[in-house]
Design goal:
seven-stranded parallel sheet; two-stranded antiparallel ribbon; alpha/beta; about 210 residues; 7 helices; Rossmann fold
Length: about 210
Amino acid sequence: AKSHHTTAIRAMPRLQPKALLIGSSTGGPQALTEVVSHIGKIADRVPILITQHMPPTFTTILAEHLSRVSGRAVREAVDGEPILPGRMYLAPGGIHMRVKKRDGHPVIALEDSAPVHFCKPAVDPLFSSAAQIWGNGAFGVILTGMGCDGTDGGTEIVAAGGAIIAQDEETSVVWGMPGAAAEAGICSAILPLNDIAPKIVKVFLGERP
């Protein structure tokens, strides 16, 4: 198997960041805690949408935990609610979270459809819909997790002019999802967990004087 040292890295495109999208699975709650605790002002500037593979009830507990550690409101997404800067939305367990436009503005769309990669919620529906809504304003992060969820949607984000970064193998509990994205060649950076939040801050602030 290739290590991340031999995987091609894409150049970081010139983004106009409008939304931060995060996907995670096995080991994800700990990784999410690290990231949301250290993104600072970015959490005030853009909406943050998170899909963690998890059943119902557990996502409620995770949202409460992330709210405590980040000092910001993290809530399970509600179908049809507007997507606003300064808010963090967590996909509820057992249902897919997508993004759609209503009256020209992005809103949450919860979809009780078939599992994707045996997961529900899955990352691909979030990423692919975000690519359609935000294009080069979509910035996706793929954290630790088994399987390959996030790669297809991440490919769509990259094709739309957005960017994907992934957690590295050494700091991932399971390097499935980030590894699949790395092997697909869609990542602009493959980083240790502690470096992901600083990278997010750098990218978003760098494009916003």
